[in-house]
Structure formats: C-alpha cells, structure tokens
Amino acid sequence: MKTILGKKMGMTQIFDEEGNVIPVTVIEAGPEVVTQVKTVETDGYNAVQIGFEDQKPQRVNKPLTGHFAKAGVTTKKYLAEFRVEEGEAYEVGQVITVADFEEGKKIDVTGISKGKGTQGNIKRHGHHRGPMTHGSKHKRLAGALAAGTYPSRVFKGNAGPGRMGRETVTVQNLVLVKVIEDRNLLLVKGAVPGNKGGLVSVRYAVKGQGK
Predict the structure, then answer these.
(1) Which one, 41, 55, 79, 111, has the greatest CB density within 10 A?
(2) What is the C-alpha to C-alpha distance for residues 195 and 113, in angstroms, rounded to an integer?
(3) Is 165 left (phi over 0), alpha (psi -120 to 50) or beta?
C-alpha cells in the first residue's frame, strides 16, 4: 500500500550536502492504525481502512464508536480506505508510520485545493481581456458564448465564471527529500495542494520509484 495520511504544516527550505537550497513542504504524517481489512472473499475486493488522529469519544457517533471498539483501537478523527493487492498482508491494529517511507523516492500527494470562491472567467480559465481603451465596455467580460441564429444557446460545460478551487488535486512524482521519524514528518520537494492544516494522503508514485 505504502500510503499514509497527514496534515500539511506549511513550507520551508533546507540545504543539501552541496549547499543548494531546496524548497520543501512539511507534512506531519501518521502514526495511523489499520481499523479494517477487506478481502475478495468477504467484501469482493482487497482494501485497507486506516484511521488517523485521535478524537474524543463523545465526538464520534455510535456506529463509528462500535466500529473502533470492534477493531480494538481508539476513536479516530479521519478514516480513509485504500486499495491493495493483498489485504491479508495487513492486520487490524497494525500501526503505520513515516518509517515505512524511504528518502529519495518519488511520491504522489493528494489533497483539497484552496477554495477561491466565485471568480470570473479570466482568473478561473485564463481568458484574455478585452481592449482597455477608446471607451471599451468589454474589459473583463466573457464575450460571445454562442451564435444567435444557430445553435441559439450556450452549450453545457462552456468555460465561464463560477466557483473556483476546493477540488481534489493530486501532484505526482514529487521527491521525498527527508524523513524525520521521531517527529512524524515528511519533507517533500515542492508544493502540495491545500491550506495549512489540510488533510493530505501520501503514497509512492504510481509511475515513479518504490511502488
């Protein structure tokens, strides 16, 4: 599986052995615990469910409280499920930490991008603006969207103003620069999606090394 949940703590920079500056994103990942193992025989597919970050019992509903009690683990704030090739390779209660990741490997990071609210077509889609001189009233408008005679309507999916951001985004093939086991930290070269404190999932790159 080689997947772990974490929180984006922000960005900083470190220096390599040659003195070069490397911009990195700090991710506080794990430790997380396996709360359920699904197999083809029982569920029709292989998957592992993991829980991350302890939660007060009074803030967890009764079904989830029973689910955690059955697994014999403390109540968790976040639950996530990941497909695996063999579910039998994991067991309920198993702890996954950053120690399972190796420095120098390529990883994929998935998170929720920053929400921008409602934005115009220029910021949202990168459209060109209209002329800014000679009394123009068409500076940042969307312009013509469809012909008047045919089809006499705007097709669905046409790029225009609307809600921007707050979407699931995956940044692929980032380099895992450093692993700090005693503080549960991963230092990833470059930027990852989301706000500070946002939940992200980190896994070995599908097309990179260390699958």
Answers:
(1) 111
(2) 7
(3) left
Q: How many residues does the chain have?
A: 211
| Tens of pLDDT, residues 62-104 | 999 999 999 999 999 999 999 888 756 788 999 999 998 999 9
The token duo for 177 is 């620069």
Structure tokens at 79: 């639950």
Amino acid at 182: D
Give me the phi and psi of 37, to 5 degrees please.
-120, 125
Ordered alpha helix ranges (H), 44-195: 62-71, 121-125
Facing residues of 48 across strands?
Answer: 37, 82
Q: How far apart are CA 86 and CA 50, in angstroms?
A: 15
- Amino acid letter at 148? G
User: Could you give phi then psi for residue 182, rounded to 5 degrees?
Assistant: -70, -15
